[in-house]
Amino acid sequence: MSCQLPRERIDATISFHGHSCPGLAIGIRAAELALRELDSPKDTEIVAVVETDMCGVDALQFLLGTTMGKGNLIHRDHGKMAFSFFRRETGQGFRAMLSPDARGGMDDEMAELMKKTGSGKATDAEKMRMGELRATLQDRFMTLPLDEMFQVTKVDQGAPRPPRILESLACERCGEKTMESRTRRFAGATMCIPCFQLVEQKI
Length: 203
Fold this sequence. Notes:
Number of domains: 2
CATH architecture of the largest domain: 2-Layer Sandwich
């Protein structure tokens, strides 16, 4: 089944991101899945934990209202095409991992063409083929049934804790104010992380 979000919402998401691409399509469908599974929560009720920093995260911000500034968008740098969603008021939660089959077997050819394009060695024909593959993949992502696109597992531990306002401490090396939970202690001094990394012997 094709994406059920209104066309104007999809177009607005593309405008927000700046271009249309397969990565953004993944995020659009992940947002659609979250709205379906969590009964369309308000943006203050939903939390998204993303394991990637790719284009699709912009779709979550726009369509779900999850942002780092509100504390309901959490990035875990795992390099996986996976998204977890939680509804704070009910404790519902699930993790969605892009299914390997969702790419329709195009990975090998696309990877080879991406290498050539990135190195500047792609021919005009190869650039055209890359564009065709990207368009085909994007269309596939927007039309696959959600249950075929993502592998979904229930998450039982509940939503991550809401953000807390903590004291800011002055780094004793550079003098800049730093959130208490992000400071380090070294040789009796309180330091921000960049200053700590300059003096800590094991790094």
